[in-house]
Write a structure and sequence with these properties.
Chains A, B, C: It is found in: Endosome membrane. 3 copies of one chain form a homotrimer. The first copy, chain A, is an alpha/beta fold and about 475 residues long. Helix content of chain A is about 55%, strand content about 10%. At the B-C interface, helix 4, helix 10, helix 11, helix 12 and helix 13 of B face helix 1, helix 5, helix 6, helix 11 and helix 12 of C.
Chain lengths: ~475, ~475, ~475
Amino acid sequence: MEKTNTDELPLAMNSTEKQETVCIFGTGDFGRSLGFKMLQCGYSVVFGSRNPQMSSLLPNGADVLSYPEAAKKSDIIIMAIHREHYDFLTELTEVLNGKILVDISNNLKINQYPQSNAEYLAQLVPGAHVVKAFNTVSAWALQSGALDASRQVFVCGNDSKAKQRVMNMARTLGLTPLDQGSLMAANAIENYPLQLFPMWRFPFYLSAALCVFFFIYCVIREVIYPYVYEKKDSTFRMAISIPNRVFPVTALILLALVYLPGVIAAILQLYRGTKYHRFPDWLDHWMLCRKQLGLVALGFAFLHVIYTLVIPIRYYVRWRLRNLTITQALLKKEDPFSTSSAWLSDSYVALGILGFFLFVLLGITSLPSVSNAVNWREFRFVQSKLGYLTLILCTAHTLVYGGKRFLSPSILRWCLPAAYILALIIPCTVLVIKFILILPCVDKTLTRIRQGWERNSSYSKSPLNGKTDI
Amino acid sequence: MEKTNTDELPLAMNSTEKQETVCIFGTGDFGRSLGFKMLQCGYSVVFGSRNPQMSSLLPNGADVLSYPEAAKKSDIIIMAIHREHYDFLTELTEVLNGKILVDISNNLKINQYPQSNAEYLAQLVPGAHVVKAFNTVSAWALQSGALDASRQVFVCGNDSKAKQRVMNMARTLGLTPLDQGSLMAANAIENYPLQLFPMWRFPFYLSAALCVFFFIYCVIREVIYPYVYEKKDSTFRMAISIPNRVFPVTALILLALVYLPGVIAAILQLYRGTKYHRFPDWLDHWMLCRKQLGLVALGFAFLHVIYTLVIPIRYYVRWRLRNLTITQALLKKEDPFSTSSAWLSDSYVALGILGFFLFVLLGITSLPSVSNAVNWREFRFVQSKLGYLTLILCTAHTLVYGGKRFLSPSILRWCLPAAYILALIIPCTVLVIKFILILPCVDKTLTRIRQGWERNSSYSKSPLNGKTDI
Amino acid sequence: MEKTNTDELPLAMNSTEKQETVCIFGTGDFGRSLGFKMLQCGYSVVFGSRNPQMSSLLPNGADVLSYPEAAKKSDIIIMAIHREHYDFLTELTEVLNGKILVDISNNLKINQYPQSNAEYLAQLVPGAHVVKAFNTVSAWALQSGALDASRQVFVCGNDSKAKQRVMNMARTLGLTPLDQGSLMAANAIENYPLQLFPMWRFPFYLSAALCVFFFIYCVIREVIYPYVYEKKDSTFRMAISIPNRVFPVTALILLALVYLPGVIAAILQLYRGTKYHRFPDWLDHWMLCRKQLGLVALGFAFLHVIYTLVIPIRYYVRWRLRNLTITQALLKKEDPFSTSSAWLSDSYVALGILGFFLFVLLGITSLPSVSNAVNWREFRFVQSKLGYLTLILCTAHTLVYGGKRFLSPSILRWCLPAAYILALIIPCTVLVIKFILILPCVDKTLTRIRQGWERNSSYSKSPLNGKTDI
C-alpha cells in the first residue's frame, strides 16, 4: 500500500522553535486529515488507537500508540471518535486529568442527544478542559486546502486558556477561529453543520406553492380557455408569457408578506395595550424569516425584469408587431397617437423600474457585510422606510398596469379575474392598515407602548421610573 | 397585570455549571429587556432600583433590591440608567470598588457632552473597572431575537480582564463582541448608534440637486419648447424619456467628481512641492466620501441601463416605429442602409455596456467583505486603474452618442445645448488633467513627492535618510 | 520649512490616563506617518534616528533621539527600517532585551529572502519579543484616514502578551487587528501586500485567450467570408454582434471548466481506488481557482445578457425589421404564425434567463460575507447541486438556440461551424461523464472511496476502524 509522498512533509521546520506535539485519538478519515494538515503546519502528531499496529494509512511522520501512551505525549488531545464510543475514556481519567480535550464530533441529526457531545465529554472526564472545535470543517477541505466555505472554526469551552490554545492551533492551520463563549454553546455548534437553510424553508415552500397555483391559474385562463373557445394553440405561452405573469405576482405577494407580520404585531400590541406579551409562535417565526421572504421576492422580481426586457426579442412579439403594421399599411390607416396611453404605459414602466431599483438596494443592504456596517438606526431606516416605499411603488406599478382595463368585465374568463388583480389583495390590505397605523393618534399610542408604557399598569404611573432608567 | 409566561424561562439550566449572577441598575425598558435575555441565557439576574417594591414589570425569576444590596450580589453591574442620574453613584463608591461597571447608555445627540458617558462614569467611581458595551443593540432586537443588523457589540475599556468578561457575556447572549480598545473609544461608540449615514449626505444632496436641475433643464427643452412652438403635448416624456436623460448625466458627473479631488490633490502637491502640507478641509471631506459618490453614480447608471432597455416596450416607441414603417410602405420607399450609422449606434451602445460592466465591478469590490479580502495594492489597482478606464469608457459613450449631431446648431433650443453636452464638461476636464499628470516628466516628480521627497528641503538632500528607513 | 499644523495635535488628552510612549526606529515616510497617527491618537512618540539633528520633517510633538536613547524611553519599538539595515541592532541587544519589537517591513518581491524579515529580526535580537504588524497598511491611508481597503492589520508573534499589546495599539489607531498566530505566519503576512490577484491570473489569461480566438474565428466567418463572396461590408458587426457571440461562448466554456476538474478527480479516484493519492499539481491548482473561473464566466454571462437585451435598440436591427415589414407589406404577403418557432424561440430565451438567474445566485453565494454565513453542507449544496443545474440550463440554452439549424450544412462557412457548436463540446462532455458518475453503481464506490475506503487495503477490512472513529 502506498503512503503519502514524502515531499508533502512540513517544509517550514523552524529549528529555533520547539515543535508542539498534538495527540489525536482515533484514526478515522477526519482524524487522519487533521493529523496530516497539522504535520504540514509544523506540529508533531501522535495518534492514539485501539489497534496501533493495524493503522497503516496514517500520514508519514506520525506515531501511532495505544490511547494511554499517546495521551501522555501531549497536553492537547483531539477526540476524533464518535460520541457512542466516548465511554472508554472513563478508564483514562487519570491520564487525561488537566489535559485539553478537543471535541470535534458531529451528530447525524439535529438535537440527536439531549446533551451536546462536548458537554457529555466534560461530564465523563471532569478533570479535563473540554473545548469544542473543528466540527464545522470538512476533511476534504483540510486535505485539499480549498477552504472556501469553511475557514471558520467555532470554538467554545469553559476554560479560557485552553480555548486560547485551541484557537491558536486553528490559526496555525490557516483557519479562522471564532470564540463562541462557554461550553453551553456546544449544542448550537454541533447542530450548525447539519442545517440546510433552515430559515429559507418556509419562504421557499410558500413561493413554490404560489408559483404552482398561479401557473395553473394562468394556464387555465390563457391556454385552455382560448383552446376551448377558439381552438387556438397557445401552449407556447407557457415558456415566457405565463411565467412573466406568475413571477411578478409571486414577488408582489411575498413582498407584502414581509410587511404583513409587522402590521399584525402592531395591531396585537395596540389591542393588548402592552409590548410585554409574547406574540403567538407563528407570528414570531414569520417575523424571523422576513429577510428570507424579501430575498426570495427579490429573486422573482429579478426574473420578472429580465422576462420583461426580452419581450421585443421574442419571435411571437416580432411576428405580431410585423403583422399589425402590415395590416395597417394595407388598410392605409394611420394610427392616431394617444397621449393618455403613452402616459399610462410610461408610468407603469417607470414605477416598476424605481420599485425594482429600491428592491435591489434593500437586497444589497441585507448582505451580511453591509448590514454589519450600518447601525440599528440606519438599518431600520432602510428596511422600514425604503421597504414601504418599495411596496408602494410595486403596488402602484401593478395598479397602473391594470389601468383602464381594471374593472372591464371582458377580462373575466370563466369568472376568473386576471392574476394581477388577485396579487393586489394582500399588498393593498397591508398598505391600508399601515396608513391607519401611522395616523398621529394611533401612532402616538403605539410609540408609547413600544417604549415600555402599559395600559392598565400601576408601573407606568410611577413618576420616577421610566425617566431615570434606560 | 400579566407577567411574562413561565415557559420563556431558561430552558438550559445546566446543574453542573454554577450560575453567574449579573446585577442591573435601573428597571427601564432596555434594562428589563437585557435582564430577560440574560435569564434566558442562563444567568441569574438581580435588579437594583430606587423603589424596589414598585417594579412590577420585571421578568420572572429576577430579584429586585435596593442599589447597594443589589450591587453586593454580583461583581458585574450593568448601568441601565441615564447619564443625568449617575451622580447618586458617588454614594456607593465603597460598594462598587473593584466591580465591573458596564455603561450601556446612549445620548440623544452626537457629542452631547464634552466627555463620553463611560469616561464620566469612570471618573465618578474611580475604583471600578468601567466597560462600555451593549449601547448599539436595540431593546426590541434583544427581546425578539431578530438581531439582523445589531449582532455586533462594540466593547471598550481600560481593564482587559473586565473587558474579556463582558465580551464573554455578550457571546453568551448570542451577540458578537468587537474589542475597540481603551475607554477613549467610548465617545465614538456612543456616537455610533445616533448616526444616519453621515458619509452619504453630501453625495445624496449633491445628486438630488443635479437631478432636479437637469430635470427642469430637460423639461424646458423637451416639453415647454415644443409646446410653445408647435403646441405639441409632450408631457408624457416626463415619465421615462427625461429621467433617462437626467440619470446618465448625473451618473457621469458624479463619476467624474469621484476622480476630480485626486487630480486636485496631485496639482496641490506639485505646486507646494511636498506632501506634508495638509489639504484644505473641503478637499479632505470630498476625498473621504468618494466611495459613496461612486456608489450613488452607480445607482444612477443602473437606472439608466434599465430605462434604456425598456425603450422598445414603450407604447410611444412602438407607435412611432409602426407609423414610420407604414409611412415608408405607403411611399414605397426603401430605406438605404448606412454603415456609418450602424457603426456609431453599435459603438456607443458597446462602450456604454462595457463602462457599466466595469462600474458594476467597481461597486462589487467596494462591498466591505470584498474590499477586506484584497490587499492595498489590489484595491488601488481596481479603484484607480479600472476606475479611470470606467470613466474613459463612459465619457466616450457620451461623446459617441452625440456623434454627428454634436456641433450642429439645430440642437440648441433657446440657446440651451442638450444636457449630455453639459455633462461632458467635468469628465473631459478630469481626463485631460489626468493625462497631463501621467506624462513621464510630471509623473516622476509626483511619485517622488509621494514617497516623502520635498522641494526646498535640507532633509531630502541627506544621503542617508530615505534609503535606510521605511 | 513648514511643519504640520498644531491644530492636528491630539484633541483627546485625557489627563486621567497616563500617556503611553512608543518608540519608532527610523524616520522614513512610513515611520513618520505612523508616528503622526499615533500622536493624533494620544500616544507619546519618540523617534530613534542615526542623525537625530537632521530629521526636520518629523511631526510636531515627537522627540528625536539616537537609537539607544530612544529605545530606553519605551518598551514597544517599531522598526521602520529596511531589512538590509537590521544588522546594526546586534549592537543594541542589551537595550532591546525584553522589549517588544514590531516589524513593519515589506519586501520588494514575493519570497525575496528564505527567512521572513520578522523571523530574521527575532534571530538577530533573541531577547526581544518580535511581533509582525502594520505592513499591510499604507502610509497614505494612515495620513489621510481613508482606510477603505486596509483597515485590517495582520498580527503574528510568539509572545501572546506582546501580541495583545500591539493589537490594542492597532485598535487605538482605528485599525482592525487580526491575530494570525505564531511568527511562522510572518512570511505569508509579508508576501500578502505584494500579491496582485494571484488566483485570478489563470482564469484571466485563459478567458482572454478564448475571447481572442473566438473573436478572430467569428470575424473570419461573419466579416471576411461575406466580404469575399458578396463584397458586403459587415465590419460594424465587430462592435456588438460578434462580441455577443464571443461572450456567451467563453462564458459557457469557462463554466464547464469549473466542473471539469471535479469530474477528472473523481475518475482518478475511481481508477486508483483510493483518495489518499495526491492529484497532479495542475489538477490541484485548477481546483483551487474554480471560484475565480466561475466568477469570470459570470462576468461574460452578464455581458452577454446586456448585449442581447440591447438588440432591439440597435440601428441595424431596427433597419432590418423595418425593411422586412415594408417588403412584406409591398408584396401584400402575410406571414403565417409558426407555433414551433415560437416554442423554440421562447424556450431558449427562458432557459437562458433561468440559467443566468442561477448563475447570479452562485455568484452571490461566493461573496465572502455570504459564504461565511453558510455551513459546509449548504455551501456544497449551492455550489454543486445548483452549479450543475446552471451548467445544464446554459448548455440546453445553447442547444435549443441551435435548434433546427444544428446539422444543416449551410451553416458551415469555409468548413468552419458556428462558434456555439464549438462551445458545446466541453460542457456536453462534462455533463455526460457526470451522468455516468452518478449512476448508482459508480456513485456507491466513489462515496466509499471518499469516506476513506481503499481498494487493496488491509486497513479497510478491519472491522473496528472506520466505525468507531471519525
